[in-house]
């Protein structure tokens, strides 16, 4: 089982049980507000946002407690989860490709910004394997990073992106069970862009509506 499938399965299962870069902006104006739990849930892509994909774990958001800190911020002493409010996840499958979207909502832009490098350097950047390479995902969010590599036992492709949009940190974890016709950089870029746009819409007070092109 690849790092991505493991990470996505754990996050989705926990949420469903109910237990316990650059600085160029993509268009946010002014001070971004902290999101409510319902806004976090609606930010996560759903069936309408993912045409052609099968939803395997529905968008779910929970209050950030001790259990979820250990999943969302598996750095020493759960560093990076300070001032976090909510944690959310949703998972989709398309043919041999699986993608998990994750979000941590903080109480301020400063808290999200301070957590960014802690979580990227301390955990998430390693999810694409030791030989993963960085790649560009365009001017989305306020900060962004991405790595593409081999996450499976037989060199199957996988990728991770991390983006900050205002008061939120966002992740796209994607992997494929097949070497051919699996996930590629353009596909990962599109997935990360959808999540970032939905987060920006929510913080602008709009209903998240960004979706993949059908």
Give a description of the structure:
Mean pLDDT is 86; it is low at 1-7 and 17-29. Strand 5 and strand 6 form a beta hairpin. It contains five helices and seven strands. It has 214 residues and is α+β, with helices and mostly antiparallel strands. It has a seven-stranded antiparallel β-sheet with strand order 1-2-3-7-6-5-4, with helices on both faces. The longest helix is centred in the C-terminal third of the chain and has 19 residues, at 185-203. It is globular and about 40 Å long. It has helices spanning 3-17, 37-43, 66-72, 109-122, 185-203; strands at residues 54-63, 84-94, 97-106, 133-134, 143-150, 157-165, 168-176.
Main features:
214 residues; alpha+beta; seven-stranded antiparallel sheet; 29% helix; globular; disordered N terminus
Percentage of β-strand residues = 25-35%
Percentage of residues assigned to helices = 25-40%
- State the end-to-end distance: 29 Å
| Net shape | globular
- Number of helical segments with 4 or more residues: 5
The run of helices and strands is: HHEHEEHEEEEH
Number of strands: 7
Query: Nearest-angstrom radius of gyration?
Result: 15 Å
Strand order of the largest sheet: 1-2-3-7-6-5-4
> What summary fits the major beta sheet?
7 strands, antiparallel
Q: Which runs of at least 5 residues are low in confidence (pLDDT < 50)? A: 1-7, 17-29
Task: Give the oligomeric state.
Answer: single chain
Structural class: alpha+beta
């Amino acid at each position: 089982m690849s790092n991505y499938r493991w990470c996505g399965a754990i996050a989705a299962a926990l949420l469903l049980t109910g237990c316990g870069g650059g600085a160029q902006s993509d268009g946010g104006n002014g001070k971004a507000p902290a999101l409510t739990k319902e806004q976090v849930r609606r930010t996560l892509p759903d069936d309408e946002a993912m045409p052609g994909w099968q939803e395997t774990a529905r968008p779910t958001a929970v209050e950030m407690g001790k259990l979820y800190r250990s999943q969302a911020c598996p750095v020493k002493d759960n560093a990076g989860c300070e001032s976090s409010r909510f944690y959310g996840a949703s998972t989709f499958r398309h043919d041999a490709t699986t993608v998990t979207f994750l979000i941590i909502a903080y109480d301020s832009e400063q808290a999200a910004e301070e957590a960014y490098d802690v979580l990227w350097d301390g955990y998430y950047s390693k999810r694409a394997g030791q030989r993963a390479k960085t790649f560009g995902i365009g001017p989305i969010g306020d900060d962004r990073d991405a790595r593409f590599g081999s996450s499976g036992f037989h060199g199957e492709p996988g990728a991770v992106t991390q983006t900050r949009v205002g008061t939120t940190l966002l992740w796209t974890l994607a992997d494929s069970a097949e070497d051919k016709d699996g996930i590629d950089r353009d596909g990962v870029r599109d997935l990360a862009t959808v999540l970032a746009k939905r987060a920006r819409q929510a913080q602008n007070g709009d209903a998240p509506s960004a979706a993949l092109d059908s």
